[in-house]
Amino acid sequence: MKKIILIMMINLIIISCKSNFLESELEAYNPYKVGDTLIFKSSKNNIDSFLITNKEIFWTSWTPIERDGWYNPTNAVIKYKKINNYESWKRKVFLENGESEFLHIWKHSPGNIRIMLLFNGFLSENINNFGELQTIELNVGKLILTDYFEILPYCDECQRRRSDGIIKVYWSKKYGILKYVFKSGEVWERTNL
Length: 193
Hints:
There is one protein chain. With 193 residues, the protein is mainly β. It has one domain. Helix content is 12%, strand content 43%. It has helices at residues 2-15, 64-67, 156-161, and strands spanning 37-42, 47-59, 74-82, 99-109, 112-119, 122-127, 133-134, 138-140, 143-145, 148-151, 166-172, 176-182, 187-190. The protein is elongated. Residues 88-95 have low confidence and may be disordered.
């Protein structure tokens, strides 16, 4: 009887191992609110816009001991949808309802997070942050920033083989996406900061 109770308690402890996000781990998640509109203007004077439709922090539904043995990963997800008809990218990246994941952060265990940016056909996956904080001045409209990330695609080799698509995204902890650059050299800059 004592063995059964001990086994049940150990199982309960393992199942309940959840790792909450620290505020500093949500820096990529924090710049946006549901209802925010992101408006971008291209170097060819085209306009593209997106709407933040959902933000959610949740735990996965699997039992950790069955999956990886320890933690039930915490997830922070932002979803968005295109709100104009301009086709800035040739491949369909949005679901039937028009929504798509924009940002997904997983916290597998304390100190171990993965950040995935999925924007307009661009995919980047990084550990713990978006990379090295840049200090060279970046002009975005009337703003001059010196604390931003230059985010490169998850698969550099895949990107080099493609003839189109985004090759670089500039991201600020305060504003989120600032601008993005296509392989063709076309630059899309956020206009509503």
